[in-house]
From TrEMBL:
SUPFAM superfamilies cross-referenced by the UniProt entry: C-terminal effector domain of the bipartite response regulators, CheY-like
Protein origin, superkingdom: Bacteria
UniProt cross-references to PROSITE patterns, sorted A to Z: HTH_LUXR_2 (PS50043), RESPONSE_REGULATORY (PS50110)
InterPro entries assigned: CheY-like_superfamily, NreC/VraR/RcsB-like_REC, Sig_transdc_resp-reg_C-effctor, Sig_transdc_resp-reg_receiver, Tscrpt_reg_LuxR_C, WalR-like
Domain Response regulatory: from-to ranges: 8-125
4-aspartylphosphate: residues carrying this PTM: 60
Protein name (database record): Two component transcriptional regulator, LuxR family
GO molecular function: DNA binding
Provenance organism: Fulvivirga imtechensis AK7
Length: 218
């Protein structure tokens, strides 16, 4: 017997062919229940007033009237328990940063395969974050080299911790970080633990999301 709860999903996209296609694809998965679909953000918000029992809202970014960024902001303001997965053609760090800052928990590209799409939905439904590989790479590529003191104070990390966070996100090993910053391995590990504790991140994706939301990336 399968006791797993179905994941209630709303899909928002202004391209009908894509909307119909992804709806049909997800309906074939026994763990998903497509509650509603909408062609733009305004229609999505209207439908949520009728039924907001949604676990995951999958939304495009570029839409007329009310785009994905604005939709994320409104949904998280009115329905904070709904988890949002952005599904877009745009892979630049600025587009990614905008929706993450407004409440999205995941970001994948429209050329994503079926298996990764299903995994992303399942992760986001559980309150986790999910980014496709290209999205993660582009976020890392958008890391800035400097930040103002006010920014460091805002995110509660020291300058050194921000520096180490950027190196961690750029896939530097502990040894490489120690060599680059001329500090001991023990010091790197101590900073790493402090960063994880302060950001409450559980993994690399969580650290990236925190960095994006707090303005550490372009």
């Amino acid at each position: 017997m399968n006791d797993l709860k179905e994941i209630n999903i709303m899909i928002v996209d202004d391209h009908k062919m894509f909307l119909d296609g992804i709806t049909s694809l997800l309906k074939e998965h026994s763990g998903f229940n497509i509650v509603a679909s909408a062609k733009d953000g305004n229609e999505a918000l209207t439908k949520l007033t009728v039924n907001n029992s949604i676990d995951v809202l999958i939304t495009d970014i570029s839409m007329p009237d009310l785009d994905g960024e604005a939709l994320c902001k409104e949904v998280k303001r009115k329905y904070p328990d709904i988890n949002i997965l952005a599904l877009s053609m745009h892979s630049d760090s600025k587009s990614i940063k905008k929706v993450l800052r407004n409440g999205a928990s995941g970001y994948i590209l429209k050329n994503t395969g079926q298996e990764e799409l299903i995994e992303a939905i399942q992760q986001v439904a559980q309150g986790q974050t999910y980014f496709s590989e290209k999205v993660k790479n582009n976020i890392m590529a958008g890391m800035t080299g400097t930040e103002e003191d006010d920014d460091y104070q805002k995110i509660r990390l020291t300058k050194r911790e921000v520096e180490i966070l950027k190196l961690i996100a750029s896939e530097y090993t502990t040894n490489q970080i120690a060599d680059k910053l001329f500090i001991s391995l023990h010091t790197v590990e101590s900073h790493r633990k402090n960063i994880m504790r302060k950001t409450k991140a559980k993994n690399m994706a969580g650290l990236i999301k925190y960095a994006v939301k707090e303005g550490i990336v372009e």
